[in-house]
Amino acid sequence: MQSLSRIALAASLAVVSMASQAADWSDTSIGYRYGSKFAEPFNTLNPNDIHKNIFNLNHVSGYSYGTNFFNVDLLMSNKDDPASPGSHNGAQEAYVVYRHTLDLAKVTGKDLSFSVVKNVGFTAGFDWNTKDDAGYNSKKRMLVAGPTFMFDVPGFLNVSLLQLWESNAPTNEFSSTSTPRYSYDAHPMLTAAWSIPVPVGLPISFEGFANFIVAKGKNEFGVQTAPETNIDMQLMYDVGTLWNTPKKFKLGIEYQYWKNKFGNSYKGAAGDGAFAKTPMIRAEYHF
User: In this predicted structure, what is the pLDDT of residue 171?
Assistant: First the structure.
């Protein structure tokens, strides 16, 4: 897994470098967050008290006809989310997200604003992950596409309605069996991303994303999936302003609410681990 993490990071740096060179503007950052109340479905060891250290690389940029968003998280669990059966080493995961939003006003040359919406775009992209853990060893692949509505607010608020095409090919290390790649039913997701300044006289922003995902049919084991809610929000303080270097270093607190994680019902066999409520600390350095 460590080699996969290095490959994911190297590929991510290459993507960010190419996107930055072609951009009219860009913002690239590295970040760290930590929490001790993570949860994973089907985890019977300590389902609501997994510790994770998460390192990430994030890039957003704009060009003549749209924007690019790229993020890679490297997640490292403690022994309560073991890397293999009986292991005292924690699981490791790489999760990559890419989104491209085409600015339809710029493409068509028309004013597409209405009511509180200032512009409309079309978003497409993918999610990719790999994880080594005792029971599932996820290898998620997902394509997304759909319209995006950009709201007229301080900072930004983008809301998208995306269709998802998701598949996975897990490996169960308890039984030493691999599942052939399985495609779930195509299904929609209502998603929002935002960064809005908080009017308190300090350089504090309210940031985050929210995903509301409908059930995706039966999973690879023939079990009906459940609707999924994943809300991740942060209050970030621009610490760099203390040294007259604004928008360089941010520090804050984060909270993640994830119900029916990965489409597994917390009321079913996945148990309490499918319902995570996780406070975190977060730090970011922007280049």
Answer: 78
